[in-house]
Amino acid sequence: MIEVKKLVKRFGMKAILRGLDFSVQPGEFVALLGPNGAGKTTFLRILASLSRPSLGSVKVAGYSLPNESAKVRARLGVVSHMPLLYPDLTAEENLLFYSRMYGIVDQQERITEVLGMVGLEARRRDLVRTFSRGMQQRLAIGRAVLHDPEVVLFDEPYTGLDQDASEMLDEVLRSVAAKGRTVVMTSHDLARAEELATRFDVLSRGVITASGTREDFKNSNLLDFYKKALEM
Questions:
Q1: 1-75+151-157+182-232: which CATH architecture?
Q2: pTM check: above 0.70
Q3: How confident is the model at residue 173 (pLDDT cuts 50, 70, 90)?
């Protein structure tokens, strides 16, 4: 579903990604781990067609970036640091706007389904500016999966959330993954990543230094794996 080969991204003379190889099979939930400045957000922005690679090839859902970015965006959902919601519209109006943009046929039916999935059915007619950070993040996930994308990208979705909001977000992410979507999530929360993901890749110094599945940690833990990967 995602195939990246020899990806390089430079900003001026500084290389952030240095010949990165990365592939994800349909239905995998990959946690992309790494220290601050490793290039995780830069990499997700390239996958989301928001930034162009300097060198290398990138394919998402069978389409090449950046040349087929419109086709990729139609099959992609993105949750970034910003919720990308209109604060002076209601939750329902926000989703109606995006459903029209994506050409969804049964708009009201789909909006009701998504609001139920993210636990906001009772707040559908409330303005988004009255929502807590956690509620906005849940609605942002609803926006991202509204058009039933094949691939969903989450960039640090737990940033700024309290414990209750984080636990609710856990359930929403499990629901998203249970639909069989391909998910890539960046996170600094190793415990949550270990609970949610099926595969764990460590990005360090511009390349993937280690990759492992849940099965690999039966006799160890993700923290040890992560520390060893940063030493490579």
A1: 3-Layer(aba) Sandwich (3.40)
A2: yes
A3: confident
